[in-house]
Amino acid sequence: MVANLLDPILLFALPMGVAFLLPLIDKLGRSVTHAVHLLVLAAMFGLTGWWTWQLAHGMAPIEIQTGGWAPPIGIALRLGVTEGLLALFAQGAALFGAVYLWGREEHGDIRAIALQLALVVGALGLFMTRDLFNIFVFVEITGIATYALAMLGREDSALEAGFKYMLMGSAASIFLLLGIALLYKHTGHLNLDAMQAALAQGSPAALSVALGLVFMLVLVSFAAELKLFPVNGPGLDMYEGVDPGVSALMVVTSVNGYLYAFYKVLAVFPAEWGTTVSVLGMVTFVGANLMANRQTQVRRMLGYSSSAQVGLLVALLPMVRAGHVHMLPVLLLIANHTFAKSALLWLAGQGEKLSLVEWRGVFSGRTIQRLTLTAAVLAITGLPPFPGFFGKWEVLTDLSAHGGAWWIGAILLGSLLEFGYYFKWLHYAHQGEESDVPQVPVSAQIAPALSAAVLLVGGLGMSLWRFPELANLSLPVAVLLGAGLALVLVRELSSVVSSGLALLVVLGVVGVTVGAGLELNTLAGLFTALALAGGTVTAIAALSVPTLKGAYHGLFLLLLSSVLMVVQSEHSLTFFVGWELMTWTSYLLIAQGREGARPAWVYMLFSGAAGFLLLGGLLVGYAHGVDSFSGMEALTGSAQLAAWSLLVLGILVKIGTVGAHVWAPDAYTESPDVYTAFLSGVISKVPVFALVLVLAHLGTGALTMGGYTFELHHLVAWLGGLTALGMSLLALFQEDAKKLLAYSSVGQLGYVVAGVAILSPLGWAAGLYHAVHHLGFKAMLLLVLAGVIHRTGTRKMYEMGGLIARMPLSFFIAMIGIIALAGVPPLGGFVGKWLLYNALVEEGWLFLAALMMFSSLVAFLYLYRFIHTIFLGQLKTRHREIKEAPLPYLLAEVALLGLVGLVSVWPQAVLSPVNAIAHSYLGGRGLGFEGELVFPGGVVRGSELVTSFGSYDPVVTMLVVALVFVLSAGLLWVSVPRARRVGQLDIAFAGEVPPPPEEIHFAFDFHRPYERVFGAVLRGQAVKFWRGFGDAVEAIAETSRGIYSGDGQTYLVYFFGLAVLLGALQMGL
Amino acid sequence: MELLLQILWSSIGVLIAVAYGLLTGGIVRKLFARIQGRVGPPVYQGFIDLGKNFFVRDNISHGPMFYFGPALRTAGGVGIFLFIPAIVGWAPGENFSFAGDLLLVMYFMFFGSLGMALGGSAGGHPHTPIGAGRGLSQMTAFEVPFILAVIALVADTGSFSVHDLTLAQAGGFLEWNLLTHPFAAAAAFIAMLGMNGYAPFNVVGAPNEIPVGPMTEYQGGFIATLGTGRAIFAIAKMILFMDLFLGGATSILEAFIKVFVIYMWSVAVAAVFPRYRVDQSMRFFLGWPALIGVVAVLLALF
Questions:
Q1: Which of A112, A421, A898, A956 has its CA 20 to 30 A from that of B3?
Q2: Of B63, B118, B152, which has the smallest distance from its Cβ to A981's Cβ?
Q3: What ipTM was reported for this prediction?
Q4: A38-42, A112-116, A688-692: lowest mean pLDDT where?
Q5: Are the C-beta atoms of A537 and A556 separated by less than 8 Å?
């Protein structure tokens, strides 16, 4: 066996030997030195990989006793699977680090290379040693190597930071040594295994005081080494002051080493003391993430982030010890942090110390780095498909099974805070013109990309191996994922080719889905059809946009796949993976708009919050052994209410219900015009899908207080109604046509929410019918507008007017769209409203019915404004020669026209599947009238829809309307035989010459009277609230980060202060 | 066959309604004149105007959409008449009310308004959108008490069908919703003042200010067509109120009388009030009338 021939001691011998030979090797040339450096790391990686593979396949852990001596004389080392994996992460990342340094002359110093090898060795030692004193030795080795590396930098700041770091390091070392000495005194052992055995036998009473003191000493020492709150000041200064290449090396080697060493030492102490550790770690996680939000210096921000991530891991370690959390997810989190953070730090090595604002546009034209940064940010914020997501998922499900609700809450809060600053950096780096920050050498571009690739491949591989349900994707989803990823990677592919490819893929997927027999009579089927219809139409329209390249189309396919994943999911995990995938692809698509960066960031914060609320709800299920929506029916009592509330709250935020709507209008408005149609038509319906599921399986959300039961779904319906009204009112006052439609989109969702929340068959009929119909007319209106913007180059309505003369087809389609939206018979908007009012009156929710009717009237106002100011009135002089919208837009609009026409005349096309769905979820409730075609809550007689309250016949209505229209037109034709067509300025102007078109097109501040009446209520209340909320968070962050004065003495005060505090706590215990 | 017959009956109904609408309009003008101490035009002035406008030789157009306005407005007026049962219980008088219920009627009312606003806007005159914007704003406000009244009635009667709502009042005037649902009736009749567009809610057309608002650019045959639509629309609305609150009608004569009486309510108010600005009228409708509507709904709930 090779393993017998090669002792793991080689892992130490090899790098140390080479390090000493480096000066000699360097004589052969610097490239040779670099090559040897790489080779050594690669060899170590290969060897460790080989052993780890064996260990994972049943080999017993390799025990080594140095020099053949048994402890206490020799040093005991152990290489098990965990140690092997940790070593692999460290060596792998260090290997990339070596690549990073290759091209950077200032680090080409052979002393730096030797120190790097020393760091790797130190980390290995910390992973493998079983000896307490040995831990101290390796802590010193890594510590000294780190100071030395830091001080190799030529900047003053690096020297200062290194010195402060050393100061703190020394204090920590002394504490550690004291602790070890005390332990040795009381147990007579230095070997961890022997010590544990001794402690297990020794009398606790005699030991407890000494052990308490040791615990304090060790914890404070490791807190300083691991940069936990509040002793992370020197660490932060270090990240800010030294070259990010050094920081990256520190993260991948020593930090991981300290973590695992700490984990080993924890075994000595009673399990219940772990809570102190967890609290300290969690405070660091939340606190550092909070403070990072106020940080404008990117390197220091990354320092905060490291503190936070390590804090989370520290918090988890005692839980792993106690058996509440599995080791594997924690290892995943470590791997995720190792590779993501190293990639981020290497990327931050771009240029001199840049603040956030100076990062503007740095990666605008740098494809590899742009992709890398995106991947690394997604990984570190714990989004799928990166390992961090799966690690967090398992940790959280483990915790939920052990009643760790507070821990879960803290983890989710910290993670949300993490979104804030990472996505801020991302949007700064991506937006705007290319900056003039010089590009780094190729090797420094490749290293982070390698890390990102490891994260992507590792994440995908791990997820498929660990969660078989994820491997169970349908063919369309898999195809879309693959094609999307491929297109994203060739992000600069020309628009013609990429849009064509995307359309082909979507059509192929539609073909496959339809060919496989799409079952419309299920919720999944209905929403799949919705998504594919919207996807096809949007893909067609995108053919005419020359600015959208491979990156857009790739993300669009990914997004489509995520939507399908969500609606076809049968398992909470698949659902949530799809959901989060949807969140970030959507984010990146919104950010592609010209001014999309900031709205996308706000979107991400709200979507992140929504996602975590949903996750919280799903975890309530996991706490009770339930891992799917359908399984949640088993929940009762407070668990049911908790799951219900969290899920519904998340959904409402994601929908943009009034109060939480502030993200929506800007995100809709600033995203690429074609994408907005998809966002409004399809993406906004995904939370509706979730709402249906939640209400179907978890019921009405009954809240019992003092013997009185209140059903919370009532509240949800009211929120829907208020959303409809509030958004419609806000839409009135927009000068930006797209923003008007954006508000309108959110408002229309209010009707859907209200309908679904009634939780009656008729309510579902109303909600789901409207959801489908909304895709038709709203996507149509948005695409018409996209065509108009394409031609006029403006979104301001007062800069348009009279376009009917130049774009008659667009006008016609827009007119149908507004009639459909307004709910004027005979189009489908009326069917939806008719169903909704019937459902509301049937339930006796009369005031809500009145509210919804009023808000539907308000819609008239903004619709009239929309069509008048854009298409009617006076044509602007500069638009005299404008052309009709491009053909693909028109084709897509005509397809949507078909959808609107179909559901208007033949609502059964939607109502019949909804009936099957309502039947399967709500049972036979409310269905009557034997022997006829039934829709939820009513019947169809011939072409007539009948409910217990009223009836509507779309076909007869359509015929009557057509008839009277023909008659009226005939009357007009008879009475106006030969009208003379006159010019646009030939108007009845009281005998005066009309001023130019620009001055007499009534468009600006159109609904002034309305503002006089409602203005005070509406003027940005929600925006004000959230801005205040954000300011408060930032103020807290700003104040609390003030404790890091940058003064070494202050830092030491914190160190001793923490020691006193922990000591006192320990005495009190 | 039945359908063709219904079309025939309804066509006759439409003609009668137009004639009655023009006549009522003439009477109203006469009334206003007498109140103001003028002689006023003859009551048949409406017919004369219509005839004159129909035969104006030269007309001016601003493009296809310009034609749409009057066509949609008239179609809206005729349509609304057809969807309301004029004489409940007598098949020829039921029109096409089987196509839908009160909701259809309420939403179809907007068909004409929207069509008019669109067609007028195509004329390119700034007064049109000003008038239309005012009209639509005011509409959203006066519909609030009306909606509340309707919902109260529907909740009590258990049906959205105008037919059922009317039949529920059978058995003498003591059963009329006007008396059995005083709050709903009050809210609805105040809302009607706005619907009819007489003073104090006539800022939409606002004579002297934005000449005739949405219709500024129209002339000749266009005006004639619009006038036809307007006449029938006015009558159709009154029929709706008759059906909802005055127990409907069982004969044409009864319908004539009740419609006339209802119409006079808004004329009487108009005769003594000056004009509100749009925001003032909105505040008015969203104040007491809406509150009365709320009371009506509360009564229906408990």
A1: A898
A2: B63
A3: 0.96
A4: A112-116
A5: no
